[in-house]
Amino acid sequence: MELPALLETTLSGMGYELVAWERAGRGLLRVFIDRPDGHVPQDVSPDTPAQGGITIDDCVAVSNQLTRLFAVENVDYDRLEVSSPGLDRPLTKPGDFVRFAGQMINVKLRVPQDNRRKFSGKLLGLEDNKVQLDMDGNVVALDWNNLDSVRLKPDF
What we know:
With 156 residues, this protein is an alpha+beta fold. The chain is 23% helix and 38% strand.
């Protein structure tokens, strides 16, 4: 089984979603996890402030599970890092554009559109394979296939 499919299957079985993964220098494998929208683990009190986020205990549990899995599946790596995607979470799947509609995002394109590669505005959603973005009252449609990176824009 390919690594992305292996990660997706394992993490979803544990109640998490795979946000992104990457291989870095010297055998480092990074895995970014989140909770699916609305998922709260059974052992967490609804009053816990971190109920919607990833805790260090989540990272430890996933790291331990992946370490055992990678040994069985002969996945080549030297070091494993498991973490939350952070406040500027990348949006990588079509479902992310539905889940985070209404949030502010930053977009980088592969090929310029209207002489620009960077866009910032409120995410309206995904329609006809185009990301709909409200930029100060003007709706801009950005082609899904031209997206280089899309990240949530934290509000401080």
